[in-house]
Design a protein that fits this description.
single chain; about 400 residues; alpha+beta; Cytochrome p450; six-stranded mixed beta sheet; 17 helices; 13 strands; about 10% strand; binds protoporphyrin IX containing FE
């Protein structure tokens, strides 16, 4: 066994988050498994080691919590997720229900409605010319089509983003920002639970399909409620942030946007490449169930491992020319949605949203121009924009 490689880098610091890719270069150069002193956790950042950790749930468990908090030693902030924060075989049962309600037939049925909404929103944004791309498109579109699909009532949907910020905020260390945010919005978790009740969902949405699975005995009614809540935790901010980053990338790379404009059929691949290149989901956590060894490094039982999937997407040992954004790239082994048993169950939904919106833009807008600096929002669990000043020509 080699001696431990350590780093003082702090993945939750403003510097790291301003440019995680420079930090990933440093980490990959240090070695395959690095001890992050500031937080007393391990991290992995090469494609191969990320894959090893995410594929081996018998050693690298989700039951220790989806964020930096170690549930083997600390209290979770809310009852743990019954899909993300459990291991097989318990995981398999809830996952199967989620897989069914997000299957290809449902997505095919949703596509046309999504296209109509995206077309209208892009037309409206283009009529304005100068817009905040977050307000006008990347936040507005998912915040309409996703809760509509789940069957959520119309009013108060902005609270979904507050809830998402709580969920992904809990991913990082508990700082002053998080404590005051939680205190200011103390009523929101109860509001979310109320909205997820069967009686408050429309009869033709995905939420109701989950309750129907409970009628069939596949899960209990209490579990159905928790699974509907999972949609609202995992499915809103992720797509808002990923679509925002994809729009920013296309505006920053006019030659790539020109290719998309010439062939809007590239929209799905463009979104996938944006997910590899710069995505909302940069890192995941696992907790070891036993003493183990990874790439020559001994790791103890109940230790946290931070898995930088954002770095895996830039690993030159796996992707040719990893720092080039190329919307025609053939992406082999996308890791932006995770892999293994917990790989994103909503990824086809996310891809549908991303594809439809980028295509609607490409079909209507000649040129995207950034008219000011993009601003990042501060949430430890996700990478995303709070502002994207742009002109749609
Ligand atoms: C671009 C948007 C999205 C990104 C980048 C993303 C990313 C991810 C990643 C990386 C994971 C793995 C977590 C882990 O292994 O610890 C995950 C899991 C998950 N995602 Fe997504 N996601 C997106 C959109 C969605 C959507 C739209 C939904 C719901 C329809 C969703 C629902 C879930 C759920 C329920 C899990 C947990 C799956 C499990 O534990 O088996 N996600 N997502």
């Amino acid at each position: 066994m080699s001696s431990r490689i350590t780093s003082t880098l702090d993945p939750f610091s403003p510097d790291f988050r301003a440019d995680p890719y420079a930090a990933y270069d440093q980490l990959r150069a240090l070695g395959p498994v690095v001890w992050l002193e500031q937080h007393g956790i391990w991290c992995v950042h090469h494609y191969d080691t990320c894959m090893k950790v995410l594929s081996n749930y018998e050693v690298y468990s989700n039951a220790g919590g989806g964020g930096i908090k170690n549930y083997f030693h600390e209290e979770p902030w809310r009852p743990p997720s019954i899909i993300l924060e459990v291991d097989p075989p318990d995981h398999t049962r809830t996952r199967t229900v989620m897989n069914r309600v997000l299957g290809p037939r449902i997505l095919r049925e949703l596509r046309e409605g999504f296209e109509a909404v995206a077309g209208t929103m892009v037309d409206e944004a283009r009529a304005l010319g100068d817009v905040d791309g977050v307000d006008a498109l990347s936040r507005r579109f998912p915040l309409k089509v996703f809760p509509d699909s789940v069957g959520l009532a119309e009013d108060g949907r902005d609270k979904l983003l507050v809830y998402g910020a709580m969920v992904f905020g809990a991913f990082g260390p508990e700082g002053d920002w998080y404590r005051s945010f939680m205190a200011e919005n103390a009523d929101v978790p109860a509001w979310i639970m109320d909205r997820c009740q069967r009686a408050n969902l429309s009869p033709d949405g995905i939420g109701e399909m989950i309750y129907a699975a409970a009628d069939d005995g596949q899960v209990t009614p209490e579990e159905a409620l928790m699974l509907v809540r999972t949609f609202l935790s995992a499915g809103v901010d992720t797509t808002v942030d990923s679509i925002g980053l994809a729009l920013k990338l296309l505006a920053e790379h006019p030659e790539q946007y020109a290719r998309l404009r010439a062939d809007p059929g590239l929209a799905r691949n463009a979104f996938d490449e944006a997910t590899r290149f710069d995505s909302s989901s940069q890192s995941l956590f696992r907790t070891t169930l036993c003493d183990t060894e990874l790439a020559g490094q001994a790791i103890g039982k109940h230790e946290k491992v931070m898995v930088f999937i954002g770095s895996a997407g830039r690993d030159g040992a796996h992707f040719d020319d990893p720092d080039t954004f190329d919307i025609t790239r053939r992406i082999k082994g996308q890791m932006g949605y995770g892999v293994g048993p917990h790989g994103c169950v909503g990824q086809m939904f996310a891809r549908l949203e991303g594809e439809v919106l980028l295509r609607a833009v490409a079909e209507r807008v000649d040129r995207l121009e950034l008219t000011g600096p993009a601003e990042f929002r501060l949430n430890p669990g996700l990478r995303g924009l709070s502002r994207l000043p742009m002109a749609l020509h």
